[in-house]
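To the structural biology subgroup,

Please find below the input and predicted structure for Succinic semialdehyde dehydrogenase, which we are adding to the shared reference set this quarter. The sequence is reproduced verbatim from the submission form. If anyone notices a discrepancy with their own records, reply to this email rather than editing the shared folder directly, so we keep one authoritative version.
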Amino acid sequence: MPLATVNPATGETLRTFDALDAEEVERRLAAAEAAFRTHRTTSFAERARLLRAAADLLEADEREIAEVMTTEMGKPVTQARAEAAKCVKAMRWYADHAEGLLADEEPAEADVKDSGASRAFVRYRPLGPVLAVMPWNFPLWQVIRFAAPALMAGNVGLLKHASNVPQTALYLEELFRRAGYPEGCFQTLLIGSKEVEGVLRDPRVVAATLTGSEPAGRSVAAVAGDEIKKTVLELGGSDPFVVMPSADLDRAAEVAVTARVQNNGQSCIAAKRFIVHTDVYDAFAQRFTAAMKALKVGDPMDEETQVGPVASERGRADLEELVEDAVEHGATVLCGGERPDGPGWYYPPTVLADITPGMRVHHEETFGPVATLYRAADLDEAVAIANDSPFGLSSNVWTREEADVDRFVRDLEAGAVYVNGMTASHPAFPFGGIKRSGYGRELSGHGIREFCNITAVWQGA
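Predicted structure (tokenized):
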């Protein structure tokens, strides 16, 4: 895939970029190694000062970088501005909390004595240069949620961003440079996917994090496993959104629409499978479908637009294939389902009902504004449908019954359970999944420790 900005609203190629040659990649790897030797010794106060400076710059650049993101991958510009603001919040959160999250931990006094030590503690030390392979759907946020904790821990970053967001990738490198980070602390590698293996196998790169597709995750994990290097993977998701009889149906339907079409439906943690108790199925389906039909689809630069184009022509074709397969196998289209005329890679908000396990859409992720509706006879069937997926990223449950909540928290196979609300990432809470949604965690104290050397220190008398 060429390194290019192609406007999804028009299909027009706006800018192209040359990939780095082997000599420049080598120079950047050497710079990362050299930067780590110094950055790892800096104080938390100095790291926090630099990260806050970067946050201030990003806050000032919010409108400008939002337009770049919208141009490159098509998200509504209002959502792009919100993404930039979220990054600022996370950067400041880690600047404020990293030192406490990575403070030395002391075992119980009795255990220290039993070990024969006069003193013992655990220290979190940085690992080194970490390769981040990042996707296009949240081109700022996905990177910052890695970079902020990694830099605060004393690591340095190498970013291989998606090929269709090169301007955002270059902006991120420049942001950290402008903030005062020394050369090599955070660098963008404008390279193709075929060059990732060589970078990951380089002994100066100590670990990798990837957010993206399952095939990409398998590839990176295989190489890292061969090299015995740590990885964190956040892959696909097909999150269930379960509605029980006691739910506030009006609120549940309202949130369900946002949960499905946020970021033009291109979010790993977007709700995709709507599993509704039979007692309230018809009422929910009517509310949900009407609201999906009413969404304003259009130019993502328009402040009133709620759904813009999907990011690529291939992405739209994938959606069409899933919908067509479902219809051929008996699914009912409640709204949408047909490609509109005109330029750009638009696809309408679509609701499919009567889903069966024989349809591809039942087990595959729909990365766009397509929702599937399921009718569940009771709580047991709702749990069974929710777990009948190769993915396990997050989940949403709507109920006012505490017994329901306890059961879902116990039995849902997911990295998170959101009750009476929409799944969202926040710097204070761990983020990640199980099954084919990946492993490891980002954000919170769990995330910052993923790329640390958890060092046991034992000291005799």
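Summary notes: The radius of gyration is 23 Å. The chain has a mean pLDDT of 98.

Regards,
Lab coordination
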